[in-house]
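Task: complex structure prediction.
Instruction: return structure tokens for all chains below.
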Amino acid sequence: MGDLEDVYNELIMEHSMNSYNKKNLENADFCELGHNPNCGDEITLEVKLNGDIIEDMAFNGHGCAISQASTSIMIDTLKGKTVEEAKEIVKTFIEMIKRETTNEDDLKKLEDAIAFKNISHMPARVKCALLAWHTIEGILNKERK
Amino acid sequence: MNHEEIVVKDFPILQNRKIVYLDSGATTQKPVQVLNSIDKFYKNYNANPHRGAYSLSIEATEEYENTRTKIAQFINAKNREEIIFTKNATEGFNLIAYSYGMEKLSKDDEIVISIMEHHSNLVPWQKVSKITGAKLNYMYINDEFELSDEEIESKITDKTKIVGITHVSNVLGTINNVEKIIKYAHKKGAIVVVDASQSIPHMKIDVQKLDADFLVFSGHKMLAPLGIGVLYGKKELLNEMTPFLMGGDMIEYVYEQDTTFAPLPNKFEAGTQNVEGVIGLGAAIDYIEDLGYENIKKLEDEVVSYAREKLLELDFLTLYMTPNTDNHSSVISFNIKGVHPHDVASILDSNGVCVRSGNHCAQPLMRFLGVDSTCRASFYFYNSKDDVDKLVNALKKAFEMFKKYIG
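Output:
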């Protein structure tokens, strides 16, 4: 039960059920759909840039508590960062979930998103936690081109 | 014999892992008798059937072919050549779709299936429809998650050439009256493909009484190993069909540019077969016959009716199940209102309760029900009332965790 209580903690529950990031953006620069056909989870991410800075982000969609909270917390973490900083954070988050890094200094960059660390022990839920992060990865890589 | 004795005697995994296994609709656990039969095969008879003139290969052939006869008797097929081994139910449906559907159907024809079909008895028909131009129509369920007579009779028409119907829904547990559907379809000149994957583990199948044209099931949902399935087809239909897969053992004479094909059943069994799977399926049938469908029903009824009663008491649940218990098998789909089924399944898992969550290979049904996914508990004779109590307790825990956040 240990891992599970860590995962379904106050922060994640609040973000999953009543997220203030769940809304539409006006004049978004990017709008991208992410989905897991296996479970039917779907999110639409909207990103507004100001030069190199992620000025605003929001999402819509539906899915499990993990996918919804992960999306909302990701938005909190990435807002205000430069595209390059955001890419680095996304990379670190994916590495954390895949258990490819445990470097504490790196993980600090994740801010609240570190709350998902124990998902790495729940293989059935890894996809849920990564949905938004893979979606933003697609947007950020597009931005570079 | 009670549930505990069965588990202790025959199902080591359920004892060793101390879990509540409620996913038999996905695959059942295997009794030691099935495991031992495979061990015995490899230690005593292993050779490639139909290939060698030496006695070992002949013995392997006998083991393999005797199981075919056993299955024919088990489902009361008129001829043993009507039993074709496949790798799973999906392959069976594809065989029918390609070797019958593609050949026989054309633009003005119709295929009718139910909205509760598993993707395996749905996607192949989409393909047939796209290639031949035949129209694919659906029979929808009513508020009680059942197919009404009116729905059946309005959808199966004189244009219908193929009806695909599951005997028991893998999501809803609804038992369809396939005998009645077959009778009506035959009156309209259609043939019927029955999916018995979710019914044959629980109830006696008699293909002659049903008058099914084709009937398909997989072994692993009825105690047998993974990777073995059965297609039953009426001899006259199978005989006029072209082979599905080409290659070794399904031929008669092969020339540089032409081939004549073997008679039934080899015509549809290309390449070296899953002999251990066939042997294991034979042992699984022995197990079911020794225990008896009557006892299986008695053991299951006690637990499933208890589960229905206990789950209905939980007012935080939505249940997707017919109120007519006579038409309901041992699958119960549910959701905790406002909580995603994957979260529920994770919490149940951490309490040692295995249920499936997702769309259960039935996305059109999910869409029809207006949900993305559900949790599903599916029972078999080795489950006990204690398993139900553990499920209910774990569900209460899950609800407690989410209660204050549910809007």
